[in-house]
């Protein structure tokens, strides 16, 4: 018989008032009813709090927290939600996305045979559905999040997944919230590496793509691109240490991949700057460091 464990739904928000009602409706109208809703607002300056106030005393809302100062990172809010969650299962429902009403029902069922369940995902915006998303974890028909996928962020939208709640000790040790730009990639590695993963086609998550987000590098300045590269270097070092040698042969290809991604987005004129020269030197020194360590 299908058990109905408590699901903790973490709703982090910053200035998404335009989408909040749709997001809240898609959560509160779930056919699966054994869930709590944790509302976390990161000091929004739009009308978000006016919308949230209507739900402060809702029977499903167990936490209603508003930051006085913006953290500047959604990943800090993710971690706060994980620490507050009481459920056996977690769903981080980002505030500008939506989903089908059977999302939790089917996702929780799928977790009986996996550590993480990923729903079918469609991109959408104010003009409608913009096509489907293939999450990289499934590119090779994988059923495990393994080291061979380290070059890619395995899941492109956290709202599409549910997973078993990590232990508080594991949450406390995690470092994903210290990454401002690629915290999601680190999050998936820290909590789901070597876990079984299910491709759930029985429900749909809708991933809003109105404007460029953290992952869109096309118009970022060199300072941003430098931080982006440095975070990737830090991540692959962290991952290699945790995997105790299993990733050693992938460290330099990883570093090269993300330096190339940055290099291809820097103008010819900017490449003549001292800042870019420093970045290039950093890249070369990291390649040398890997050879020395190995």
Structure description:
The chain is of the alpha/beta class and 294 residues long. The protein folds into 2 domains: 7-208, Spore Coat Polysaccharide Biosynthesis Protein SpsA, Chain A (Alpha-Beta Complex); 222-293. The protein has 9 helices and 9 strands. Strands 1, 2, 3, 4, 5, 6, 7, 8 and 9 form a 9-stranded mixed beta sheet that branches. Helix 7 (222-243) runs antiparallel to helix 8, helix 7 packs parallel to helix 9 and helix 8 (251-263) packs antiparallel against helix 9. Residues 8-132 form the Glycosyltransferase 2-like domain. GO terms for molecular function: transferase activity. InterPro entries: Glyco_trans_2-like, Glycosyltransf_2, Nucleotide-diphossugar_trans. This is Glycosyl transferase family 2. Pfam families: Glycos_transf_2.
List its salient traits.
294 residues, alpha/beta, Spore Coat Polysaccharide Biosynthesis Protein SpsA, Chain A, 2 domains, nine-stranded mixed sheet, 20% strand, Glycosyl transferase family 2, transferase, Glycosyltransf_2, transferase activity
Outline the fold blueprint.
Blueprint: E1 7-13, H1 17-28, E2 35-41, H2 48-53, E3 61-66, H3 74-84, E4 89-92, E5 98-99, H4 103-110, E6 116-125, E7 128-133, E8 161-164, H5 168-173, H6 183-192, E9 197-208, H7 222-243, H8 251-263, H9 274-293
Parallel strand pairs: 1-2, 1-4, 2-3, 6-9
Antiparallel strand pairs: 4-8, 5-9, 6-7, 6-8
Helix pairs in contact: 7-8, 7-9, 8-9
Keywords: Transferase
GO molecular function, one term: transferase activity
Protein name: Glycosyl transferase family 2
